[in-house]
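User: Some background: our group keeps a shared notebook of sequences we're curious about, and every so often someone picks one and asks for a predicted structure to add to the entry. Today it's my turn. The entry only has the sequence so far, pasted here. Could you supply the structure so I can complete it?
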Amino acid sequence: MTPYNLLILLVIAERIAELSVARRNGAWSRARGGLEHGAGHYPAMVALHTALLLGCLVEPEAADRPFLPLLGWASLVLVLAAQGLRWWCISSLGPRWNTRVLIVPGLALITGGPYRYLRHPNYLAVAVEGLALPLVHTAWMTALGFSLLNAALLTVRIRCENEALTPVRTLPTPGAAT
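Assistant: Of course. Here's the predicted structure to add to the notebook entry:
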């Protein structure tokens, strides 16, 4: 097993840990009346992230991609930074973090941690990792394909999440003075 394949296996293990956290947090949210938004795009997201990891394993071998030290080591630094940002997001949101868009009514937005600086920092982590992880071993087709498809998917996902996080506006009572 190559060091790169070991890296991909470690990322797969990390994803499994994330899914465990998401399952636990999903139960927490649902027990408090949490509602899921945008469930229709979730399977596409799972498929895309699975394809990223498979592409990372297959492309370097199938296309006989060399390890380019400058690109590889710089990309690894970005992968590690993305992982750090992702887990900062997870710890900042606590039981409210999920791979799904689950919103518990009445809870205020989290504005600490990385959310102090960005509205959706986890998606920055996803974008950086999706570009950098394949480039650790010069899998540029996987990096490009994932990045383009991820940009389209994140457009849908961020719109969904923003709508779900926007408080419902109170409509005036008919006949009331305005």
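Suggested note for the entry: Residues 3-31 form the longest helix (29 residues). The beta strands are 35-37, 101-103.
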